[in-house]
Amino acid sequence: MASDRDILPSWAKPTHYSVSLYDIEFGGGFTYQGTVAVNLNITNDSSWNDIVLNAHQLKLHGATLKLKDASHESKDISYDEKRQRVTLDFKDKIQYTGEAVLEVKFEGTINNIMAGFYRSKYKPKGDVPASVAKDDEYHYMFSTQFESCDARRAFPCFDEPNLKASFDVDLEVPEDQVALSNMPEKETKPSKKSGFKTVVFETTPVMSTYLLAWAIGDFEYVEAFTKRKYNGKNLPVRVYTTRGLKEQGRFALENCHQIVDHFSEVFQFDYPLPKVDLLAVHEFSHGAMENWGLITYRTTAVLFDPKTSAASYRNRVAYVVAHELAHQWFGNLVTMDWWSELWLNEGFATWVGWLAIDHLYPEWNVWGQFVSESVQLAFNVDGLRQSHPIEVPVYDGLEVDQIFDHISYLKGSSVIRMLSAHLGEKVFLQGVADYLKSHQYQNATTNDLWSALSKASGQDVNHFMDIWIRKIGFPVVTVAEEPGQVGLRQQRFLLSGDVKPEEDETVWWIPLGLHTGSSPSSASLHKTGALTQREDTIRDVNDSFYQINKNLTGFYRTNYPPNRLAKLGEARHHLSVEDKIGLVGDAYANSVAGYGATPGLLALVERFQDESEYLVWSQVLTNVGNVRSVFSVSDEISESLKKFSLKLISPAVEKVGWEFKEGEDYLTGQLRSALILSAGLLGHEATVKEAKRQFDLYISGKDKEAINPSLRKAVFSISVKEGGESAFKAVQNEFLTTSSIDGKEIALQSMGRVQAPELAQEFLSFIFSDRVAMQDKHSGTIALASNSKVRKEVWKFVRDNWDSKVYPTLSGNLVVLERFIRFGLNKFSDYETADEIVKFFEGKDTRGFDKGVAVVDDTIRSHAKYRKRDEKIVGEWLKANGY
């Protein structure tokens, strides 16, 4: 057994499972009976008497081990709850190698915690068959979520990613309901039970347990077919929903069949299954899950109604569909060997998901969005001491849920983008195609990918990428100017700005992307390719104009001298969207860390009053918002920053207006939504007045079309902030009655804008009631945490209700609890609150969310240090500049 990981004994390996579920309780108890037969290959030469496999919250009734010439019944079944294992003891000493079949009878419960085999509540549209599970208020659909280690909650299995096997599944379900699984239906057999049928599915390819899936419910679908042929046929692509919602699946459907064809060509490997099903699930812990052939989604990540949905969800649906389809190859066809290499799945699928969206929607400026969202978010998390390397040791599968984070997804994808830009996209994708062909239906490691890319490119990829994957953090490159040359120095970037020598031993390979020339428009790429030592001097640099890290393809911060930052601000109209995002983002991060200072950032963004690009504004608003958040404890600075922000945003919001014009592009609409929301919350008079007018018309019922769907969040948020309890109650009612797919998320985000502590407490009590689904409990909390007026109330609520509400409600699914803690408590900027939070969690069992608690502590202390250092100079600069 490998000492660095806790895995099952390696001598019993599964090759095939037959899973059969029956006697499912649709009337309320939600229990089910099951049988699983596992074909095993046994390679243990010495005698043995037991077999260990994974099971969690299941009851095993008995097991039979069938060998070629004998059969053994289990005499004792013992459970190890902590390690989620079960030992089947046959008592007799068995001396046997070769093929065997292990049959286990078991029972389980269809839970309501979004893990394993679980139920989702919903309010149906239209008539529902009487057989559908329901209670007084809701109906239920059943589906699965097995990644990382929750297949073991549904049936006993060898639940590790490199124990691949094929699967046969059959489900006994009511005759008027639909059953789905990874593969198409093979046959339907009559059941012994009246009113029931048994649906038998085709055998799956060899795959990991976490990719198995099934679902049961009152489903209907919309269908399309791929344009390319696969084994001589156009593949059926379907979006399944509960009754009444299928038409909202058309946008995802249209994207899906095109992306399947695109990836089949890009990866030079045809999509290998006979169908692609997308299923909208009413309660879902993540955004989606890439189960092979039956991909499951949170409703807001797959459904879109052009009449009632905010346009931002169009972007979300397109991207999430592409991300999950990328996994059908990268993750499903070739799977990471162990959870430590989770990034291989997630980092790659994130990057290639955006690549597909860029192919379908070039007008969306996808890579600008990637730099604004993915790269900047990755920087924020990786700038903490509490970060972790992209490839992180995982002792057992139960640790892995906490690394489904911004490092695995966003830093992973940012580093892949950096490598792709360096090798060239065509060469990079050829290497990926070679990797997939070499390891199809098997498991692979990071080094296997590097080998394929090295072969395709003729470069030693491992040599310059290994550090990026296996070392914590990233560098900041500090620039010093001399006539005709620049000095460059790299060091590890920490948001707290206090990197210790022992934390700064890594020397990164840094692609410089240095452009220089007599003017921004005539600048060209400098011959010096990469910084490979701690310090270097680059000659032949024209100091009329130069910039480092063109288009922010390198994963590092740049720290320019103040006068160069000002010059780049002057030249901003000659820079790409990605360049401008990087310029602002770096200036902000360097201010927090103390490599630069906040007045330099404020002077830079002041120039962006005339900016017309949504993605640049998004970065400006985020960073200025962060500065306002950190200094919100000082009333004087807070008021001055508000004036600064209003002056900055006013010309742009007045120019963009309220009207969505026919044929207007997507990004202009997004700019309008962002500017109106920000201006209204800052108190821009005309914006507040118009928002209240539209809100009153909408809420009174006089004009239900008064608010454009893409402006609901802005109008609701402004009205809740300005209108107090009555507006809060009106939006709460909107949450309870909306029929729009995105309506609940938008209402929760807007209710978080309350200004009174007692309303914040009322909102938190509402969040923790049964009226708000577990998947949505963080949405309102994040909004409250971002609201400096009431964020203390979140901490107060957590502290006062930990044992009675917070922990009991969320601890069934630690992914949800960790997310709630991390985003609910990370916005403070004072040492006192940081100390209180540390003290509160001391002595508590924080396994499964301990990293979240550590990230909160690190973030708050970094901000507290920043506030203390820059408070005086920020106040002086604001006063000197008339704010």
From TrEMBL:
UniProt binding sites for Zn(2+): 323, 327, 346
Any one of the GO BP annotations: proteolysis
Cofactor(s) of this protein: Zn(2+)
MF (Gene Ontology): metalloaminopeptidase activity; peptide binding; zinc ion binding
Keywords on record: Aminopeptidase, Hydrolase, Metal-binding, Metalloprotease, Protease, Zinc
Cofactor note: Binds 1 zinc ion per subunit.
Superkingdom of this protein's organism: Eukaryota
Pfam family, one: Peptidase_M1
Catalytic residues of the enzyme: 324 (proton acceptor)
Annotated EC: 3.4.11.-
Domain Peptidase M1 membrane alanine aminopeptidase: 251-468
Record site: Transition state stabilizer: 409
Every Aminopeptidase N-like N-terminal domain range: 13-211
Name of protein: Aminopeptidase
